[in-house]
Structure formats: C-alpha cells, structure tokens
Specification:
mainly alpha; globular
Amino acid sequence: MAEAVYERERGRTAADQAQPGRWLRRLAAMHDARWDAGHSIRAAITIGLPWVIGFATDHVLSAMWVSFGALMASSAERAGDIRGRLPVVVGATAIGAAGFLAGYLDGLPLAAIVVIMAALGAAAGLLSGFGAILSLGTMQALLTASIAIGISGIAPFWQPALFYLAGLAFYAVLFLIEAAFAGERSRKAIVAGLVSALAELAARRAELLAGGGSGEAVEAARRVATARLDDLGTAMLRAARSRTGRGSAEADHLAAVLAPCDAAFLSIMAAPEAAHLSAAAQRLHAPSEHDAGAPPRDDALFVAIERLAAQLANPSEADERGASRSRADRARSAPLADRLRPSPTAAADAAKLALCLGLAYAVRFVDGAEHWFWVPLTVSLLMKPDLGSVFARAALRIAGTVVGAAIGALILPVMPKTGWVGLPIAVLAALIPWAMQKSYALQAVVLTPLVLILVSALTPGPFNIDYGTQRIIDTAIGGAIVLVFGYFLWPKSSADVLTRLFESAKLQIAAYVVEPTLPDRRRAAYRDLAAIRRRLDPLLAEPPPASDEAASWVPLVAAAERICDHVSVYATSTGASVPSGEARALSALGAYVAATPAARAIIAPPAAGAGSPAFSALHAAVLAELHHMDRLRAETPGLMASS
C-alpha cells in the first residue's frame, strides 16, 4: 500500500513539473466563496451612504474620506467568529489613519521623502509579522501616506484622518448592531460548517471504501474538517478569555459541542464499513432526523454521531464545563525576546519592501502626472508576502485593474454627478467581500471602477475615464517595480522557510503520537500542517522554479498528514487513556518521528512489542510513512534540507 502511494505521488509530482503551464491555471483559479450578507450590507451602507449625504450637504470631499475609511474597514474584515473580527477591523483601520500625517513631509526635498518612506516601509515590513492587526494596519498606513504625500491639497492632514476615523466608527456601529443580533447565528454557523465538513469527510471515506472514490478526495475533506475543528476551538478559547458571564456560558457550550465533534471525527477516520459511513453522512446532514437504516447502536461510529446529534439538538454545559478555561490556562506564550525578534525571512521581506517603496516614490523625479502617487500606493498593496505570493498579487492586480478600468469606462459616461452616485458605489461595495474571497484579480476588478468613481466625483465637470487610463499606467509601473525588484532579482527558493515550518509540524506530530488521546495535540499537529499548505498554495501559482519546488513538497506534507490520520484511527481504540505498555512504545515511536532523517538512517526503528492489533497497525503505518518521506527527500534535491 505504501509503495503504491509513493509511486503515485512521485508520478504526480513529475507530471506537475512536466506541465509548465499548470502554474498559470493555478494563478487564474477562482476560490470557493460564500456570500456574507452582513458584511456586504455593512459595506454598501457605510461606503455608499456618505456620498448621498455629501452631495446633499455640499460636503463631497468630507464624504469621500468617510467612505474611504469605511472601505478600508470593510477590507480589513476577515471570515470567522463575528465577535473576533471587530478588534482587527478597528485596530488595523485606526493605524491606517495615522498614515495621513505623512502629508506633513511635503515640505521636504523629494530625496528626503524617498529615504523616509523607504525606512517606514522597512518598519512596516518588520511589524507585519506580529499579527493581523499590525499587518493590515501598516499596509493601510502606507496607502494613506502615499495619498497624503501625493495630494498636498487635502491639508491640513489631520482633517482627512478624522473623517477616515469617522468612516471606521460608522462601520463599527453597524458591526456592533449586527453582532448584537447575529452573535448566536455566527456561533451556529461555525458549528454548522464543522458538521457539514464532517458529513463530507464521511461521504468521501464511504466512496473510497466502496471502491468509487479517491484518497486525494478524502485528504481534501479531512483538511477542511480539521480546519473547522480548529475554528471551533479558537472560538471557544476566545469566549473563554471573555470576562463576562455570557462569554463563559458560550465557552462552556462550545466546549460541549467540540468534544463530540472530536469523537465523531476520530470515528469517521477509523470506520471500516462504507455503509456505516454513508449512514453517518446522512445523519450529519440532518442531525434532527433519525435514520431508520442507521448502523447498530453499539457501533462506535453510530454512538459518536448520535452523541453529536443529541448535543446539537439539546445543548448541555455539563459535559465539558470548565474545559475551555483549562485549555486557555494551559496556553503558554513564547518569551518576549523571542516574540519580538524578527525572523530572517521577515527581515528580508522588509528590506524588499523598503527598496520597492523607495523606488516607487523616486518615480516622482520623472513622472509629473497628477496621480503619480498611485505607484507607491500599488507597491504598498502588493509587497505583502504574509497575504500571499508577491508575484501572484502583482500579476492579478494588473490584470484586474485593466478589466476594472474597462468596466469603469462603461459606467462613468452615463453616471450623473449627484447623490445618485451613492447607488453604484453601494452596489460595488457590496460585491467586495465576496470578490476578496473569490480571487485577488476579481477584487481588483470590483475596486477599480469604485475608486475611479470616487476620484472622478471630486473633480469639476462630468465623470470621465481619463483617470482609468492613468490608473492602468501607474498600476503597471508599480507592478513592474514589485516584480523586478521585489521578486525576480531575489532567489526563489523557499526551502529554508518550508523546512522551519515542517520541523515545527513534525514536533507537533511526534507529540500527538506520544499522547494520541488529547484533542489539543491532534489539532496542533493538523494546524501546523495546514500552515505549510497555506504557504505552498501561492507558491504553486508562481512560475518555475518556485512552483516546481513547491510541488515537490506536496507529497511530503501529505505523508505527514497521513501519519496524523493513522494516529487518529488508533486513538479511537484506546478509550480515555493508553495502556501503560503501549504508552512506552508510543514514546519511543514519537521520538523516532521527531528524529532527523540522518539520525533515523543510523538508529534502529523502535520495536512494536506485544501491543494491541491497533497499535501494531499504527506502528507499521507510521514506519512506512517515515520510510516513504525519507525516500522522497533522497530523490528530491529541494527536500534534502528538510528535517
């Protein structure tokens, strides 16, 4: 079995590298996206309504800054628990308002501005590694700084900053109103997403066991299920840290739901019968209905699914009361010095951002166009490796801007410059949350006509498309700076970063092997492997050699994920605790997993001993996967450095 998997994955990697155009298809691929009605309505109201009021009161410029602040707040909002989104939105957008103060640099020589903004770009790049608030906030600050420096007529600069914050406040008020009414729905949506993912996993495993599915489909479904489990665990910990009684009760409820979800996941991974898995999938799709064709009641899968269905139908806080707080209390932060020390990768990314931003501002020496500031603005948007591939963002941004400008050319000539302009602005704003999830290019397609309307509305006379042409040119210049000086001139290998991520994941996997009954261990292992997948996905959309190197890592990560799967299957047979004899053998097996390939080459594998059949199966499967991983490393030069 392991040999067949090895040959199949080696063949798939070779096929990926033999089709040089495959990375282009990945680059242009659209992602799954769901329509978040609340996010879209908030964006439409807070971005569109200020324009209606601005034209009605003859304060169009002030309305534009309010609308711009709401636009940045909406762009900073990410998916997840509704109560966890607002701190990121407020923190990031508030930091962005500080960028307007860079307008006071306008009296300095251009050379001094270039140096100062390059230094600020380096600082922003370093700060981006310390969380989503600083990452999005520093990007917004660089955007507003480029606007303030490029449009000196908006002085005094504290005024647009205040209107920008007013847009944030408007957005936050609507957000809080929705949260007050939709907090319960948000929590139910997280649980519903997890149950749906578990149903999909059961269905895909049923197909595989029946001979009609594929292991890749099961792996993809399992990755979604583990991500949803992690989302629920994160929501539980966030509620546990709340100081309110409501937050404590919510944490207890989520913990009570998480326990049977964990058990259901393990049972689905271990179930040997396709018919039982099909019945489990149907039961999960309709947890309030009993299935007459369900498996026998003593079947472990049936018991786990029924426990989960009962918990969803009649929530109880008794099962896991206090578990959320104990998990939160067990969390340990790294020493302050370690958390403040930037990684070599972050330092290199900051240096690239500083170089590109300095060059973007230096364009002003040769570009006398009124909207030259769009060049540094474009660089600030694109040079964000923590938000995805720099190459992909630049290429998709340019393509999306061209298409968006063409759409703007159709809209602007027929648009009256009155309060009615708020209507198309609101429609475009409502599309942004969905477009952000779907594709970075599609996001640019929607944003470009929106920005063209905003800018053109501030100038005398009818709307025109001249700014669309300027924006295409400036975006192309900024994209070229990013591609040449932020991407092509630098080594493309990501081996060091991937090796560090894989080393961290491997240690988490080893800990899970040693303590297979702890759900926290399992989620941590799958979470670290998911982080590697997130790093690989954008690299697969880059041109060779980056895409080829990323493709060579995929089977290695898949093998590590299968080790976690084998441990999950074993965990279903152990009950609440592992037998003492097997515990010692698991410790030895975990140490072997944590060892480097070089160490495994000179030490003997741990013996299986006289454990249970389930442990013997786990032992054989883990050793086979480790052998498979070592062969991949030996045959793929890019993986030789991996631990």
